[in-house]
Amino acid sequence: xxxxxxxxxxxxxxxxxxxxxxxxxxxxxxxxxxxxxxxxxxxxxxxxxxxxxxxxxxxxxxxxxxxxxxxxxxxxxxxxxxxxxxxxxxxxxxxxxxxxxxxxxxxxxxxxxxxxxxxxxxxxxxxxxxxxxxxxxxxxxxxxxxxxxxxxxxxxxxxxxxxxxxxxxxxxxxxxxxxxxxxxxxxxxxxxxxxxxxxxxxxxxxxxxxxxxxxxxxxxxxxxxxxxxxxxxxxxxxxxxxxxxxxxxxxxxxxxxxxxxxxxxxxxxxxxxxxxxxxxxxxx
Amino acid sequence: xxxxxxxxxxxxxxxxxxxxxxxxxxxxxxxxxxxxxxxxxxxxxxxxxxxxxxxxxxxxxxxxxxxxxxxxxxxxxxxxxxxxxxxxxxxxxxxxxxxxxxxxxxxxxxxxxxxxxxxxxxxxxxxxxxxxxxxxxxxxxxxxxxxxxxxxxxxxxxxxxxxxxxxxxxxxxxxxxxxxxxxxxxxxxxxxxxxxxxxxxxxxxxxxxxxxxxxxxxxxxxxxxxxxxxxxxxxxxxxxxxxxxxxxxxxxxxxxxxxxxxxxxxxxxxxxxxxxxxxxxxxxxxxxxxxxxxxxxxxxxxxxxxxxxxxxxxxxx
Lengths: 284, 317
What we know:
Strand order of the largest sheet of chain A: 3-2-4-5-6-7-8-9-10-1-11
Radius of gyration of chain A: 18 Å
Oligomer: heterodimer
Strand order of the largest sheet of chain B: 3-4-1-2-5-6-7-8-9
Distance between the termini of chain A: 32 Å
Shape of chain B: globular
Structural class of chain B: alpha/beta
Mean pLDDT of chain B: 92
Mean pLDDT of chain A: 95
Order of helices and strands of chain A: HEEEEHEHEHHEHEHEHEHE
Low-confidence stretches of chain B: none
Number of helices of chain B: 10
Number of domains of chain A: 1
Low-confidence stretches of chain A: none
Order of helices and strands of chain B: EHEEEHEHEHEHHEHEHEEHH
CATH superfamily of chain A: Aldolase class I
């Protein structure tokens, strides 16, 4: 508990005693590619796209349910979401909706084109070349991710980097390096998500990362980034794991959680935090 | 006289059965014989398969007396309802004589092209089938690599490949082979076989592995559709006369097609249609009708074409 106590103290000193709780029912998840993904990463295999609203089914702003949208989709083989030829349509139906773009490794020109529409960009950041190669099947490097992150920061109003803990089949590999690199670059906020095995994928049989390791990393992040709001994002395992993780994350000084368990909320209150709810994506 | 088996779609197309179906085959598919002597891990007709014997892939086949089947197919051809017949011969002791008799019978219906996919083992046997009236012959490799062939089908890939090549040399442009994507090969291995076939004017019918209850591979997954799309694109480009090297790899995966305006080149959607012998469309052979189709038996809609390009990941806008 020593490290966690220290992390908790850092939070206590730097932030108001409140826990941001996101329940993103007012954000519609839209896939610009429908259920299609060419990349088929080992951890996802395109599985989650089928639960999103296909962009092809939306014609006008009234078709969008909610106040905001997550704009994502399947990737091509270079690790980018094929969003470019959809920008006109996305602009047409935007209305008053705020957009959280999740676009992958776009080029500078593409980022410039996306930026005017993006209220925020979510960016998965990786710190390990082998994971990029093995898990994402991409012939890219950490350097490519870093360069893209810099460009996103340069052109976009807000960028929310995400680190997936245990992305390499449940093993921790590049998370600390990702954290170190992002800390050096600076950020407004940081979202952690946690690998969860998904049926039908290459990593279906891999267990989620050991809880103690995840919590240790969250504590380190708190220490390294004492003033940056940290979030536990929507993609993380469920059940007993989630219950334990959420509580421990609060103890480790996390600032916000998406869909926390009831036990975690009780723990937050025990620790003197008030609950501040929002109804959209945690980065919006 | 024996019983023939017509695919359900064929029975509909030749008027032997009323079907509520949105697509009829343009080729009459006939299965001759049942209970194969071989034991291919993916096949409903395999020796150890407990699938109902009326199935081949996910299609049910309907028993029809031989004389009726021949008459119905012959008349359907004369009426323009089907364009050819395809005899898919299960490897049984009497299969050769069944085929010869079928070819003789079909001669009564003039120019009906008949493709025979059977288990012949010598060029001479192939020559006999051509001499008896087969318009094309199919010799299925099914599996892309020798190692996988040995474990999945049993026997020698090399022997079959050598026979296929020898037949292709003697009967240029008249041989077809089938390849099944998703049996454990890499994209690159499959692409290599496709190229080797095209170099020798061997027509390739590309199929997606389809898990079937009762077979050894019942619990395996069908292939990644993106991978299948890339191979379809490669195959179509070969047919359009592009060189094999326009297909570029990173590791075992196709990551780039070096063809300018690729979407325009492929705008007719033919890349994603059923491949193989002319006029073979095999509706829903690899997938349920409500699923996205690996092989489209008809023209694609604009949305389907867009989806196929997106799935491929190599056809940028």
